């Protein structure tokens, strides 16, 4: 074959070369989705362009036909490769793996038609060599050519549509790349349409491969300049953009090359508006814990505190990235916000430390009567639960002189030798004088803004924040625990109760020391005192403390009847814990200490020990007629001791004996000592029960919280499944509750929630468990209850609430609300608690959609 290549054949050479370069560059990144079909696609362009060189230069019809057939290798394969590329690049599922080859059927037939056209002429009816300057052959197309064109255009259109649709969710950089790719395809597509329709001025000249030069150059530049295919497809973008965890990607030079919105929200950097393309060391302060961890570790995972105000913790992990040749190409930093979890852990840790510190101090109080040792231990344990710079204990001595008997932390300020030498009048120190007068703790967050704050005390000029608590015993202020800080607003008001607890323990220690000196003559009694104190402080539940107290006291004193009355000042009642000599408990009370006369009320009003040698005596201090008597008992000797912590009245401990003058002075003194220790043990037991209650109850409504409900409900489900018992679950939500808060305010909203809870409790059985699941959502677990009975209970709740109203002082009138309820039942042994909650929630949603104020039942398919 002879050839005479026209000048425009050089364009085909350039197109072939750049197509080959782009294919090679893309193949190097073939692990990324879309790269393999795109690389082969570029080889198809190369094949088409290369064959076009020789087709244009061939001087004979046989030569042009020969190279036209080779052109069809690229022409036939390009549309399906374009569709495969678009599918992989956008994450579109194109058929199944085993059926993808179906899109190649028509291209393969087309290729066979091209190489066998002499036998059927379905692709080309005729080829006419035109005698013109460029030696262009005119191809008269047959019917199969139009089948091929329609099919090819369809594949090109579908692939292009998928890419354009992906522009809505692609990142900005990838959008630029896709626009360039699609623009190139549209140019080639337009060129081919002009050729097929015969609209190009030069008859028979196929400008499609001529356009490949522009397309190949653009794609090569796009691959090199914009690093086409270095970024993962749309699935990755959607995943990264919507991840809850923050993700930040660094290159080997620590430049930020990608960051998702979650990371921006978690890190809250302020130095640069957009961190992309900047070094991480320029984005964050050099003191940032993130940079510190990166500088000192390789791949790792750790917890970081990103800020103190507001408190923010993250779980921070770093992983290195390597390419296929194991070359280091960057790092991935992942941030998971754990602030809520850490706050809960910190709160729980503080509660544990407080309980341990209290127990440790109580143990020291009970193990020694050395006042200095006890006070030193108190300061040590205060430091475990209340942060401070310095601490001291000051005692009031004769003539209201104040002396600082124990100190800690003053070495930092060089005043460790000055403070213990200070002796001054109580009236000279305003904050101490105020506590002595009121009996209440003192909290001064910023001493610089307090005109009454005295700086005349040596070594106190550095103090910027102060908190103190009075040490009160038997109604008298013995001294103070003082905490200081060199930073304004250092202390929090929530620390005050903790400090007061230790002040109360110091009061007990001081009283113990004083009483010890009074009863030192009786070593045996002190031994008993120690044994009693040790055992009652080991008990954490209230009934256990009282029973232990009774068991020990009856060893040293005659007791026919023992009673500890626990006072509820809010409700004005006293609850009796009463035992007979034979340890049988008597049920009596509760009684009112406001309306009803009683010995308990009398002791509380006097606020000191009351001993009645013979209640039958007409001259008795307390009349026999006002004594609340236990059934079958008519005791004569009565000893009552108020249980107090500081000025707080806890209750009354009373001993009753059937004979007159049953108690000696020494016994009374011993019982009084034990009663003072019992006060703190009972208070600790009450605090422990309160802490336990707070751990499982919702603080606003008083019903169980979600954490306890999950634990209880899961056990009940296991029990029901084991014994084939019925069980149902109700989910309740207040309709339009936000309107109540918006119209009446959150305080009325809280009262509305309480009204809902009280209404539910009035309808439900004692065995049913009510839980506050969310803001205005509640769950009710109904053990041994069928779905039909649960629906009846739910309807009763729904109707009763709809009839309730909450009076308000607002012009808007009373609050009335309705509820929507979803009901489901435990059906199989595979059902979990989460399954029941999801089903009840689905039924609740149906109730909401159906108009609210109704009950819907979950229907399983």
UniProtKB/TrEMBL annotation:
Chain ranges of the GGDEF domain: 725-860
GO MF term (any one): diguanylate cyclase activity
GO CC annotation terms, alphabetical: plasma membrane
Transmembrane segments: 6-26, 38-58, 70-89, 101-124, 144-166, 178-201
Gene3D superfamilies per UniProt: 3.30.450.40, 3.30.70.270, PAS domain (3.30.450.20)
GO biological process annotation, one example: negative regulation of bacterial-type flagellum-dependent cell motility
Pfam families tied to this protein: GAF_2 (PF13185), GGDEF (PF00990), HisKA_7TM (PF16927), PAS_9 (PF13426)
Source taxon at top rank: Bacteria
Keywords (A to Z) from UniProt: Membrane, Transmembrane, Transmembrane helix
Name of protein: Diguanylate cyclase (GGDEF)-like protein
Organism this protein belongs to: Pelolinea submarina
Lineage: Bacteria, Bacillati, Chloroflexota, Anaerolineae, Anaerolineales
């Amino acid at each position: 074959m002879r050839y005479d290549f026209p000048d425009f054949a050089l364009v085909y050479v350039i197109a072939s070369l750049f197509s080959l370069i782009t294919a090679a560059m893309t193949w190097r990144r073939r692990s990324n989705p879309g790269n393999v079909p795109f690389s082969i696609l570029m080889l198809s362009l190369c094949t088409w362009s290369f064959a076009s060189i020789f087709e244009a230069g061939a001087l004979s019809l046989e030569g042009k036909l020969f190279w036209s057939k080779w052109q069809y290798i690229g022409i036939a394969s390009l549309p399906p490769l374009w569709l495969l590329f678009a599918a992989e690049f956008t994450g579109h599922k194109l058929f199944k793996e085993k059926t993808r080859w179906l899109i190649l059927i028509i291209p393969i037939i087309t290729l066979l038609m091209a190489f066998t056209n002499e036998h059927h002429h379905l692709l080309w009816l005729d080829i006419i060599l035109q005698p013109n300057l460029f030696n262009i052959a005119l191809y008269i197309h047959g019917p199969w050519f139009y089948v091929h064109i329609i099919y090819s255009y369809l594949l090109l259109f579908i692939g292009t549509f998928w890419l354009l649709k992906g522009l809505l969710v692609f990142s900005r950089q990838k959008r630029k790349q896709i626009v360039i790719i699609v623009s190139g395809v549209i140019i080639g597509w337009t060129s081919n349409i002009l050729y097929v329709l015969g609209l190009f001025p030069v008859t028979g000249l196929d400008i499609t491969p001529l356009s490949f030069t522009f397309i190949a150059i653009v794609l090569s530049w796009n691959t090199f300049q914009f690093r086409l295919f270095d970024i993962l497809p749309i699935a990755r973008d959607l995943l990264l953009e919507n991840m809850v965890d923050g993700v930040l990607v660094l290159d080997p030079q620590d430049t930020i090359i990608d960051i998702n919105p979650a990371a921006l929200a978690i890190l809250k950097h302020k130095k640069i508006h957009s961190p992309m393309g900047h070094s991480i060391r320029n984005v964050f302060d050099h003191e940032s814990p993130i940079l510190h961890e990166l500088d000192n570790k390789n791949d790792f995972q750790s917890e970081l505190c990103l800020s103190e105000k507001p408190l923010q913790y993250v779980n921070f992990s770093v992983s290195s990235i390597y390419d296929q040749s194991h070359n280091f190409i960057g790092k991935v930093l992942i941030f998971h916000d754990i602030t809520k979890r850490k706050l809960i852990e910190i709160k729980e840790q503080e509660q544990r430390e407080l309980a341990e510190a209290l127990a440790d101090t109580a143990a020291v109080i009970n193990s020694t009567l050395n006042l200095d040792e006890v006070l030193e231990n108190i300061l040590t344990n205060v430091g475990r639960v209340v942060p401070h710079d310095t601490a001291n204990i000051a005692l009031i001595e004769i003539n209201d002189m104040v002396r600082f008997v124990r100190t800690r932390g003053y070495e930092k300020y060089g005043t460790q030798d000055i403070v213990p030498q200070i002796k001054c009048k109580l009236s000279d120190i305003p904050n101490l004088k105020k506590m002595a007068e009121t009996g209440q703790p003192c909290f001064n967050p910023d001493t610089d803004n307090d005109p009454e704050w005295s700086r005349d005390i040596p070594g106190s000029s550095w103090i910027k924040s102060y908190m103190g608590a009075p040490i009160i015993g038997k109604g008298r202020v013995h001294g103070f625990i003082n905490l200081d800080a060199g930073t304004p607003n250092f202390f929090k008001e929530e620390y005050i109760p903790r400090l007061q607890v230790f002040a109360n323990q110091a009061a007990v220690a001081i009283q113990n020391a004083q009483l010890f000196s009074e009863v030192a003559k009786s070593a045996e009694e002190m031994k008993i005192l120690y044994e009693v104190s040790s055992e009652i402080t080991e008990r954490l539940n209230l009934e256990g403390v009282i029973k232990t107290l009774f068991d020990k006291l009856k060893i040293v004193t005659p007791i026919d009847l023992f009673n500890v009355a626990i006072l509820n000042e809010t409700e004005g009642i006293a609850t009796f814990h009463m035992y007979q000599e034979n340890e049988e408990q008597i049920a009596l009370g509760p009684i009112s200490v406001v309306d009803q006369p009683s010995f308990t009320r009398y002791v509380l009003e006097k606020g000191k020990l009351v001993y009645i040698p013979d209640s039958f005596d007409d001259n008795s201090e307390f009349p026999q007629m006002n004594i609340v008597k236990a059934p079958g008992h008519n005791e004569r000797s009565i000893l009552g001791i108020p249980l107090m912590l500081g000025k707080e009245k806890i209750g009354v401990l009373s001993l009753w004996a059937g004979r007159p003058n049953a108690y000696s002075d020494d016994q009374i003194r011993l019982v009084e000592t034990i009663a003072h220790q019992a006060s703190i043990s009972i208070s600790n037991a009450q605090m422990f029960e309160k802490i336990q209650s707070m751990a499982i109850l919702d603080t606003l409504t008083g019903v169980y919280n979600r954490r306890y409900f999950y634990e209880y409900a899961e056990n009940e489900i296991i029990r029901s499944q084991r014994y084939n018992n019925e069980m149902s679950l109700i989910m309740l939500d207040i309709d339009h509750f936000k309107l109540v808060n918006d119209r009446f305010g959150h305080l009325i909203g809280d009262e509305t929630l309480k009204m809902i809870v009280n209404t539910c409790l009035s309808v439900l059985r004692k065995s049913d468990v009510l839980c506050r699941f969310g803001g205005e959502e509640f769950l009710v677990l109904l053990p041994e209850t069928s779905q039909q009975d649960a629906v009846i209970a739910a309807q009763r709740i729904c109707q009763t609430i709809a009839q309730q109203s909450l009076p308000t002082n607002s012009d808007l009138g009373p609050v009335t609300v309705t509820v929507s309820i979803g009901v489901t039942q435990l059906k199989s042994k595979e059902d979990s608690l989460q399954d029941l909650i999801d089903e009840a929630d689905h039924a609740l949603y149906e109730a909401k959609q159906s108009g609210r104020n109704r009950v819907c039942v979950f229907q399983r398919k």
